[in-house]
Amino acid sequence: MAATLKDIAQRLNLSAATVSMILNNKSVRIPKETEELVRRTARELNYHPNRMAVSLVTKRTMNVALIVPDIQNTFFAELAKYVGDYLKTKQYNLILCSTNYDVQDDIRLLRMLRAQMVDGIIGVFTGEDPEYTREIERVLADKIGIVMMDKVVSGVTTPYVGTDNFYGGRLAGRHLVENGHRRIAVITGPLGSVSGQQRLAGCRAALEEAGVTLDASMIYEGDYQYDTGYEAGKKIAQREDVTAVFACNDMMAYGVYKAAQEAGRPIGKELSLVGFDDLRFSSMLEIPLTSVRQPVREIAARAVDILLGNLAGGAGEPADGVGGLTPPSLVVRESVVRLA
Amino acid sequence: MAATLKDIAQRLNLSAATVSMILNNKSVRIPKETEELVRRTARELNYHPNRMAVSLVTKRTMNVALIVPDIQNTFFAELAKYVGDYLKTKQYNLILCSTNYDVQDDIRLLRMLRAQMVDGIIGVFTGEDPEYTREIERVLADKIGIVMMDKVVSGVTTPYVGTDNFYGGRLAGRHLVENGHRRIAVITGPLGSVSGQQRLAGCRAALEEAGVTLDASMIYEGDYQYDTGYEAGKKIAQREDVTAVFACNDMMAYGVYKAAQEAGRPIGKELSLVGFDDLRFSSMLEIPLTSVRQPVREIAARAVDILLGNLAGGAGEPADGVGGLTPPSLVVRESVVRLA
DNA sequence: GAATTGTGCTAAAACGTTTTAGCAACGTGA
DNA sequence: TCACGTTGCTAAAACGTTTTAGCACAATTC
């Protein structure tokens, strides 16, 4: 049904080659008249090049995949949006894949994406797993670029972009300290997650700068999802000594709100809380959440630039290890109470 | 770099045809030994068929595009997730496109997707525009299936799936009435939106069944976003006579929470509130929101089934006009107070 | 021993492009 | 008139598959 190059060529008694070159603005000696004619006919026939055929010969699909653990988490949704928008300006398409925080899913995806349907992959990978390394290396061997985002998988050297988590944690910690808090609990990301550890470390550093030590009993391991925030929140709310909580992401912070309220120590009144991500919802809460805002837009653009840059660079050796960390900022709202 | 059919064939002194047939389980007479050999070699060489080449000859890309107005709205994120998951079980990939509620973007997308890179499109289109009709018809002419979701664009006959909005509105209205409410305000979607009008109509019907009339002063027009909910909420909270609010989506309901609280008439204590969508976040609120739950998962599956069914059916004539409305359900939480 | 059937494969075309090498016709300068 | 350059195009290969038609040989039947 759809018109092909040949259709145009035939109609004008030209060869497909000529038409192709004209339509692709290749610099060849073609008189204006012919060119006009070809363009007009293409428009008339509603011609669109067949992407499959083009890709087959050019070896580029103009597709980029984004792998995120949970598209329902608005942080990743936002990320996806920016990545997609930015990609579009570069004529690339986004193939979005959500994995439900399942490492096996990541690997399965990697495997299937390798089947030459994307030029590059931007991955927010879920965990640490030896299989990652193998699979990622296979993908790289097939000349498909990878940029890791937000989280690092150790053991592979691919460019990485993300937030400066340590700095963000420090921001959170400092804010609490500055408001007079000394007994501060932290709900971390999963133990294996580098980002969570860094946020924790940053917070710890801030406390130490103020002469406060963060002892082990104050640290609760979460998994970045609501439920673990709620559970940790319940335990924390029972500890009379604790006055503030740093949740390593907003989703868990929401759980803390609920737990705190149920325990009769509401956030912003009795207990203080700082989150991380600054999700859209955080400002909508009855007591809006003070949170560390990730520069999502910048990170997205950066990831794309690096990925596409590598692709263009062709050579394929990844821009050595690190794409760079972007510093987050603190958005102060009403969830932290100032102690006398 | 990547191994091709020919590589396998050469290595085993077979023809590409043979290898292809074996790997695709075509029923041909091939002895077990050869088959085993081929499969083993394929695994060893880490063979993956080149999707572009396959698509070029089969005319199927195994990609489906989903167009949504705003991926940051968790309703659409959820939709995307389910569509993607379900598609994956059918070996299809999801290409996600978000348009920022921009009709021109929809049209641009339609145009670009037509370049044979997807087998079908599931679209939550933003508006009404004569250009839609033309563009959609062109897409259909190229044998690319379309299923419209959640919103209808009049004038084209493509299958449609969505929630039974009238029924949902009725559910909300009835719930309020059953809890003794008589003075009920409604915050609608944008005036032009069919879905919003239907939710309102359903609610009105429920009230009338109970002998309550919904007069014009009780109706506030919103746009499905937080801010208009908040604004309407502020006005409503000042009207002493009103005891309950039906917000036509959860996003706006969140605004009402805030407004109500600021006005000293908190939801679930003084004022009652019912939302629509049942976003993930609604159950996380301090006073969890009673909301009409859209059967997102079912809608997603349905859309995919219809799309793929049409594709398989080949003939291409769309399953006449309507794919069907799925009834929503009411999720009762704590935002509605029972009047004496 | 010829005819028939079955087995295990292959050749070749097709899909719709891009790209490289080069050809025919014409014009120009000497 | 010949050599040479320029102009406007084309032929053909290549990309990696799928698919159709059918071939060569072996085994079986009569």
In what order do the strands lie side by side in the largest sheet of chain A? 2-1-3-4-5-11
What is the count of structural domains of chain A? 3
**Shape, principal axes of CA atoms of chain A:** elongated
Kindly report the name of the CATH homologous superfamily of the largest domain in chain A. Response regulator
Q: What is the residue-averaged pLDDT of chain A?
A: 89
List keywords for this structure.
homodimer, 340 residues, alpha/beta, Rossmann fold, six-stranded parallel sheet, six-stranded mixed sheet, 44% helix, 16% strand, elongated, DNA-binding
Notes on the protein architecture:
- Two copies of one chain form a homodimer.
- Chain A is an alpha/beta fold.
- Chain A folds into three domains: 5-49, no CATH class; 60-162 and 296-325, Response regulator (Rossmann fold, 3-Layer(aba) Sandwich); 165-294, Response regulator (Rossmann fold).
- Helix content of chain A is 44%, strand content 16%.
- In chain A, the strands form two sheets. Chain A has a six-stranded parallel sheet, sandwiched between helices.
- In chain A, helix 9 links the parallel strand 6 and strand 7.
- In chain A, helix 5 (74-89) packs across helix 12, helix 6 packs parallel to helix 7 (130-141) and helix 8 (165-178) packs parallel to helix 9 (194-209).
- At the A-B interface, helix 4, helix 5, strand 2 and helix 11 of A face helix 4, helix 5, strand 2 and helix 11 of B.
- The first copy, chain A, binds a DNA duplex (30 and 30 nucleotides) through helix 2 and helix 4.
Compose a concise summary of this entry:
The structure is a homodimer of 340-residue chains. Chain A is α/β, with parallel strands linked by helices and 340 residues long.
